[in-house]
Amino acid sequence: MSDNKKAMSENEKVISEDKEAISEDKKAISEDKKLVSEYREGVRDQESDTSANSPQMSELDKQFSQWQSAYKDATPSVDTGSLIKEIKSARFKLKLKGAVDLLLGLAVSVWCLTLVLFEPLSTYQLLLFTALAPIPAAFGVWGYRVRQKQWKAQTLDVHSMLSFKQTQLQQQLHYWKISLYGCAVLWCGLFVLAIFNVVMFNAYTLWGTQLVINSVVVYIVYRRYKKLNADLPSALKKIEDMK
Amino acid sequence: MRGINKNKNGIAVKETIQIEKLLSEYAPLMARIAATFEANKSLQDELIQEMSLAVWRAFDGASKGSDKGFRGEASVKTFVAKIAHNKAVDHVIKEQRRKEFTHDGEFDPSNAAGAGSSRDATLQENAMDLMTGLRQLEIKYRQVLSMMLEGFSQIEIANMLGINEGAVAKRIDRARQQLTQVMEQQP
Q: How far is CA A206 from the centre of its chain?
C-alpha cells in the first residue's frame, strides 16, 4: 500500500513538473509570438516609411534633374574663336609687361653699377649709387615672384585660395604700414635738412616746397593705411564666410 | 641648334593648339560658372576671359614642368572647373571691394545658347529663374550646387573646394533647401 502511495505521489510530482514545463513552454511561445508581432510591426512601419519616402525621393530627384537641365539651358553663348584671340593677346601683353618691368629694373641697376665702377664719383655719390644699384633689379625679381605666386594660387582648391587671399590682405596692410614708416622717416630727414638749409642759406622756398610736397605724400599714405586697417576685419570676415 | 629650336617651336605650336582645343571644349562650362556668379553681361565676359587666361597659364605651366600647373591628379574637367571657380570667387571679392555686391542685372535670355532658335520659351524662363535663384544663395552654397548641377561627384567637389565629403553633403542639402525656398518665393 505504502509502495502504491509512494508511486502515486511520484506520479503526481512528475505530472506537476510536466505541467510546469508546459506552462513554461506556453510562456516561451507567447514571448515568441510577442517578438514576431513586434517584428511584423517594425516591418510594417519600415514599409510605410519607405512608401512615404520614395515619392519624396523621386520628387527631389525630379526637381534636381529639372534644375540640371535648366542649368545647361542657361549656358551663355560664347564665341570661342574671338575668346581665344583675346586670350592670346592678353597673354602676350602680360608677358610683355613682365619682361619690360624686369628689363627696366635691370637697366637701372646696370646703369647705377656702371656709374659706380667706371665714373669718378665723390664718396657720397659712390655710397648712394652702390646702395641704389641692387634695388631696381631686386624689385623686378620680387614683382615677378609675387605674380607667379598669384597665378599659383589660382590652381589651389577654393579653401586654400581663400586663405591665400586673406594672407594677401594682411600683407597688403603690412606693406602700407612699412611704407608709412618709411615716408615718415624720410619726412623727418627732410625736415632736419630743411631747417639746416633755411638757417644756413635762407633757402625758404625750395625746402618749404619740398616739405609741403612730402607732407602731402605722407598724408596720402597715412589715409590709405588707416582705410585699409579699418576695412581689414570686415574684408577678412567676408572671405571667411565664403569658406 | 637650329634643329632643336625648330623642334621646340613645333612642340610649342602643338601645345598651343591643344590648349586652344581644350578652351573651346570647356568654354561653355566656364561660361555657366561665370553666369552663376555674375549677372552683368559685360562683367561676365570679362570673367570668362580671366578664367580662360588662368586655365591657359595653368596648362602652360604644366607643359613647362612647373609645379603650379596641371599634374594629372584630377580629370581635366575638374581642374578647369576648379580654376574657373577660384577666378569666380576672386571676382566676387573684387566686386565686393568695389561696391557692396548687389544682385543687380538679370540673366539675359538672349545671351543663352540657342536663343532666337525654336527653343521653348518655358525652358528659357526656367533657366532664367534658376540662375536668378542661384545668384541669391550664399557663395558657398552657390558653389556646391553649381558643381553638383554640372555633374561632379561629391568627392570631386570636396577636392575642388578643399573640404571633406561630409561638409559637402551638408552644404548640398542646405543649398537645395535654400534654392527651393528662393524659387518658391519668385513670382
A: 49
Residue B73, pLDDT above cutoff 60: no
Average pLDDT over residues B100-118: 49
Burial class (CB within 10 angstroms; exposed 0-12, middle 13-18, buried 19+) of B118 = exposed
pLDDT score at B7: 58
Q: Residue B15 pairs with which residues in a beta bridge?
A: none
| Torsion angles phi and psi, residue A68, rounded to 5 | -60, -45
Q: What are phi and psi of B112, to 5 degrees?
A: -75, 150
pLDDT, tens digit, for every residue of A115-171?
A: 888 888 888 888 888 888 888 888 888 888 888 888 888 788 888 888 988 998 898
What's B112's DSSP letter? B
**A87 vs B contacts (CB less than 8 Å):** 23, 49, 52-53, 56
Question: What is the rounded CA–CA span in Å between residue B1 and residue A140?
Answer: 31
- Closest C-alpha among A143, A136, A135, A137 to residue A98: A143
Nearest to B160 among A76, A80, A157 (CB): A157
Q: Is A165 at the interface with chain B, CB within 8 A?
A: yes
- Between CA A163 and CA A166, with CA A164 as vertex, the angle to 5 degrees is 65
CA distances from B178 to A59, A191, B33, B140, B174 (A): 16, 61, 19, 12, 6
CATH says B120-187 is which class? mainly alpha
pLDDT at B34: 92
Chain B, 154-173: which have a CB under 8 Å from a chain A CB?
A: 159-163
CB contact under 8 A, B56 and A86: no
**Chain-chain contact of B82 with A159 (C-beta, under 8 angstroms):** no
B23 to chain A: which residues are within 8 Å by CB? 80, 83-84, 87
Residue window 98-127, chain B: list those with CB within 8 Å of chain A: 107, 111-115, 119, 123-124, 126-127
pLDDT at B120: 67
Domain B1-105 has CATH 1.10.1740.10: yes
Name the stretches of chain A with pLDDT < 70.
1-8, 13-57
Task: Show me where the domains of chain B are located.
Answer: 1-105, 120-187
Instruction: Residue window 69-108, chain A: list those with CB within 8 Å of chain B.
Output: 69-78, 80, 83-84, 86-87, 90-91, 94
Beta carbons of A76 and B58 less than 8 Å apart: no
Residue ranges per domain, chain A?
1-73, 83-155, 157-243
pLDDT at B173 over 80: yes
Confidence grade of residue B185 (pLDDT, cut at 50, 70, 90): confident
